[in-house]
Amino acid sequence: MSLCATVNQIPAGKFTTGYLLTILVVIFPAVSLHLYSIESLVRDDIRSISPAINNMIHFLRNKLQSLITLSCLLCREACQWPDRLCQGCMDDLPRIQHTCTLCSEPLPRSDDGYLCGVCQKRGRSFNSCTAALLYLPPVSNMLQRLKYNDNLAFSLPLTRLLADTLQMRYRFEPLPEVILPVPLHRSRLLKRGYNQSTVLARHISQYMKIPVHHRLLTREQATLPQLTLTPDQRRKNVRNTFSCAVNGYRHVALMDDIVTTGATVEELSRLLKQHGAKTVDVWCIARTPT
Ligand SMILES: [Zn+2]
Ligand SMILES: [Zn+2]
């Protein structure tokens, strides 16, 4: 008897949490185990206990995921758990392709792999910047809704894309020891209820298997939103607004949602290096095209 048939037999009016729990806890694993044992017999494999358990977990998870159909966050078409972004929308997101080797600023194809004007002129306090996407629609809308509309579901597909980019980036290089989210001032944190950079950092931490430390950096002064300021004003706006607790980290990743001129991550990297960091890598979901 399939799970769908079992669900159909329950009268609609009596479909309670108890029924659902019974299906999830008893019937579903039993059916899945049955299917799994048949599959093993057919294959005639001799498996140790540990791989068998692993395979069973994968099998159960895949079965469960195939039953859960959600709507895409952008186009509302059906899509699979957990990302909530259909393949079409995922493929349409504006990816970063040609960039400055240091700060990841998008550059024309002919300048790919060179330094941008700012990096050539002033250099940077951070050692690298990795971004997954360009800050253009629909990415800009997704990040704004994540930031201002409590729509945290957007963090899942965005961080998966960044994690894919990071896994390529660190194939032959050591990973940072810790992820540090760019901090919000206490007043803004209380108003918003969460720091979007910490939310993103926690997801990335799961993918990259690196811990998050969200109390090491503090924003001591409430500053003007960077959005409306010129590059020079941005640098002055964030100057000496952060503090850093004593720590022994030598290689850190600084997590932000968007990097525009890089003034905020520049200031934080300078501070981290004053506190003993040797390498500061900036990770962000999107980079603003100039
Ligand atoms: Zn879609
Ligand atoms: Zn650059």
How do the strands and helices of this protein lay out in sequence?
Elements: H1 3-9, H2 17-43, H3 49-67, E1 69-71, E2 78-80, H4 87-92, H5 117-122, E3 128-134, H6 139-148, H7 155-169, E4 178-181, H8 186-192, H9 196-208, E5 217-219, H10 231-238, E6 242-244, E7 251-259, H11 263-274, E8 279-287
Parallel strand pairs: 3-8, 4-7, 7-8
Antiparallel strand pairs: 1-2, 5-6
Helix pairs in contact: 2-3, 7-9
The protein binds zinc ion (ZN) (2 copies).
Give an overview of the whole structure:
The chain has 290 residues and is an alpha/beta fold. The protein folds into two domains: 3-67, no CATH class; 96-287, Rossmann fold. Helix content is 45%, strand content 14%. The protein has eleven helices and eight strands. It has helices spanning 3-9, 17-43, 49-67, 87-92, 117-122, 139-148, 155-169, 186-192, 196-208, 231-238, 263-274; strands at 69-71, 78-80, 128-134, 178-181, 217-219, 242-244, 251-259, 279-287. It has a four-stranded parallel beta sheet with strand order 3-8-7-4, with helices on both faces. A two-stranded antiparallel sheet has the order 1-2. It has a two-stranded antiparallel ribbon with strand order 5-6. A hairpin with a 6-residue loop joins strand 1 and strand 2 (78-80). Helix 2 crosses helix 3 and helix 7 (155-169) packs across helix 9. The longest helix is centred in the N-terminal third of the chain and has 27 residues, at 17-43. The N and C termini lie far apart (59 Å). The model is unreliable at 1-10 and 32-48 (pLDDT under 50). It binds zinc ion (ZN) (2 copies). The site of one zinc ion has 8 residues, from helix 5.
